Amino acid sequence: MTTHLHNTARNMAGKKILVIGDIIVDHFIWGSVNRISPEAPVPVVNVNREELLLGGGANVLHNIYALGGEALLCGIVGADEMSGRLRDLLAGLGTSDRGLITADRPTTVKTRVVAQGQQMVRFDREQTGSPEPAVVEALIRCVEEQVVSADAVVISDYYKGVISQSLMERLLVAVHRVEQERGVQIPVVVDPKPQAPERFAGATLITPNQLEAERLTGMTITNEEELVQAAQILRERLLCEAVLITRGEAGMALLEADAEIVTIPTMAREVFDVTGAGDTVVAALALALASGASLVDAAALANVAAGIVVGKVGTATVGINELQAELENEGEKK
Ligand SMILES: Nc1ncnc2c1ncn2[C@@H]1O[C@H](COP(=O)(O)OP(=O)(O)OP(=O)(O)O)[C@@H](O)[C@H]1O
Ligand SMILES: [Mg+2]
């Protein structure tokens, strides 16, 4: 098992993933507090350091590069300073910004102020909902063009307006055309938000977390039987090849057609920071599937990657060497 996971991980090198989704810039402000403001009963933060990180769909892209793949990001940004900073971050990874479409709205930025090891406040600058029709059309055109050279597609949905029914429909038409032309499969992996689930019909694999799976089906999941039932309902309703429900500390559960559910316990030994684990999961899944791995192997590999990322503080990615080393470790224990 581990040997061929090793080979899968090796084969991920250079695979091209088209990431379509809501782009977020994560802005951190670190400081310290020594007094309460004389103006209002709030702490005064002395700022020491600021950092901008790729978030949302851009964090999936970041994870793909860390795992040795290549990716192009399609989504929308504003005509503002933050979109320039975002382009710089993307250039730093060596990826192109040609999939960024400028809309009449701000680039989504989430700013966290952290002091004394604690988040003091978060403020968001964003405008959600459908962008103007010309922007939607430009985005879809871009997706149709870029899918031609992709080995797999990731949909990174935060329900902020990029992933619409029409985009998904035209993406899938383009995917099927390219599959015929190139004689290959192009898996489409969806990390969904639970709103408007009909958008995701026809994807290869959908990866909700347990709460999202509950909202998508209207069920509550309290035992294995309900877990299987929710996965079946989702798979049949959305006509997906498979459903992977991620379950935080309980690991994952994969349901394919005509198969028993496969449950995978978490590999995490220590847990420091679970944010972004879902992005690592879809990045690894897409790269593994693009390398020809089975759904079960892709899920197993994604689970190892997620187990590593939750053990890190402040970094939301896993390097290919770390992944290989962890697979080696597991192999030795067997
Ligand atoms: N507390 C935890 N302990 C152990 N493993 C975890 C924990 N949280 C997440 N993981 C690992 O990460 C994977 C994905 O996590 P989770 O199910 O929380 O996804 P998510 O809710 O979509 O995450 P995100 O907040 O990034 O959207 C899990 O399947 C598991 O392998
Ligand atoms: Mg998630």
Automatic annotation (TrEMBL):
Pfam families: PfkB. The keyword Kinase applies. The keyword Transferase applies. Residues 16-317 form the Carbohydrate kinase PfkB domain. The gene is rfaE1. This is D-glycero-beta-D-manno-heptose-7-phosphate kinase. GO terms for cellular component: cytosol. PROSITE patterns: PFKB_KINASES_2. The lineage of its organism: Bacteria, Pseudomonadati, Thermodesulfobacteriota, Desulfobulbia, Desulfobulbales. InterPro entries: Carboh/pur_kinase_PfkB_CS, PfkB_dom, RfaE_dom_I, Ribokinase-like. GO terms for molecular function: heptose 7-phosphate kinase activity; heptose-1-phosphate adenylyltransferase activity; phosphotransferase activity, alcohol group as acceptor. Keywords: Kinase, Transferase. CDD domains: RfaE_like.
